[in-house]
Amino acid sequence: MNCDQGSKLPTLFDPTTAVELHRHPDLWFDDGSVVCRAEDVVFRIHISQLCRHSSFFRDLFSIGARSNSVLGSSIHSKGGPNEFEHCPVIELHDRAEDVGNLFAALYDGPHFGNNDQDDFRVVSGVLRLATKYLVDTLRDKAIAHLSIAWPSTLKGWDAREDLARAYEIETGTSGARLYPSPLAVINLAREVDAPTLLPSAFFDLSRYTYSQIFDPCAQDPLYHPSHSTTTHSLPCPSSPPPSICLSLSDTQRLCLGKEASQYAITSLIQSISNSQNIRNSGLQLQSAFSLTHPMTHGYSSSLSGSMHQSGHYHHHRSSSSAICISAAACRKDFSELVDLATKHYLFDRERGYSDPLYMADEIGGLKSEASECKACAKSLETWAMRERERVWRLIPSWFRLGSETGFASPERTSSPAVPAVDVDAAT
């Protein structure tokens, strides 16, 4: 880093505006061959380092070497010689914090954190600039890091939710507070063309009520005062904190997905009433979810009575080929289960919650605790696991996200209740 940090360096200023400029404390090298300015911060780094990682800068300096177009001086020193007279000076129209994080990653490698809100601010800035300046390796690493919190696999999602649950227990606040707003993730994914982040971000967002999404209060998980709108957002009301808004087409996608979640829950409850497959001796449970009903994921209250707002699942169960030993008792159990699930669904619907993944998982475990019929209990668990996998595969289709998201292709579906409209064309 800067070898002369202990010595007093002359003050820098912009001769056109007389604005004082500040050398970056770490990214100012006396032997640097190019000066980059972002806002009122200047960086003196090495052309070779930029060209090594970025094809944009490689082409820029190749042109500059022939035409001398990048040479010049837009920075002067007070009380000292003009040290930039023959040094390329480039003005970057980016946030100084993001530029600093990008350059630090180029020199020292990326050091990302735990995907919390502070880490997201750093990683999202690096990802934007890595995309803009064609730093492909760093872009790939940033997307891979974000994919830990916004994964394309159900296993990854469950691991993510386990971390949120641990955070909730440790801090006593909603586990959703650990992660950035899914609204911000959706807008970022659109901005940098990272479609693999979209399904889980929409999936997470659909668990909130519309009031929590569009008019959050201080107690809501989506209330993040540090957030600001992006260029891809619609204008938001001027109220603290600044809201994060979706584009019109993505708002339509969200509404369609939340509507679809209602059909997912009702279809799930209806399938429980037909318990013959579950009680069938030695046969694997066939999927009871109707493919004519799209499904989505949202907040739901626990079937044991507590509101499950973090969406954490525990589904490590095994199948069994044993024979049902108490058909009459099991029929009664399933009938009571339908009534219980219906009551909780109606309770949740009034509050805007919908979570077929969590519902399936909770139902799958209810018969294991007290039932004497282990065969039906295991079969119910197997059914729950299969339905969760089916739900996960269908997420992109619920939100009309296409096939570029990295999810497994769902089976072909059709639903007259939720027609597959082209939301981009509609706008």
Could you please describe the fold and organization of this structure?
- The chain has 427 residues and is of the alpha/beta class.
- The chain has 3 domains: 11-94, Potassium Channel Kv1.1, Chain A; 117-251; 260-426, no CATH class.
- Helices cover 47% and strands 8% of the residues.
- The longest helix has 26 residues, at 248-273.
Task: Offer a quick outline of the entry.
Residues 407-427 are annotated as: Disordered. The protein is an alpha/beta fold and 427 residues long.
Helix residue percentage? 40-55%
Shape: elongated
* Structural class assignment: alpha/beta
- Secondary structure tally: strands: 8
Q: What's the tally of helices?
A: 14
* Pattern of helices and strands: EEEEHHEEHHHHHHHHEEHHHH
Strand line-up of the largest beta sheet: 5-1-2-4-3-6
Helix-strand blueprint:
Elements: E1 11-13, E2 20-28, E3 34-38, E4 41-45, H1 47-53, H2 55-67, E5 76-78, E6 89-92, H3 96-108, H4 117-132, H5 136-149, H6 154-171, H7 182-192, H8 198-205, H9 210-214, H10 248-273, E7 300-301, E8 307-308, H11 327-350, H12 356-370, H13 374-398, H14 423-426
Helix pairs in contact: 1-2, 3-4, 4-5, 7-8, 10-11, 12-13
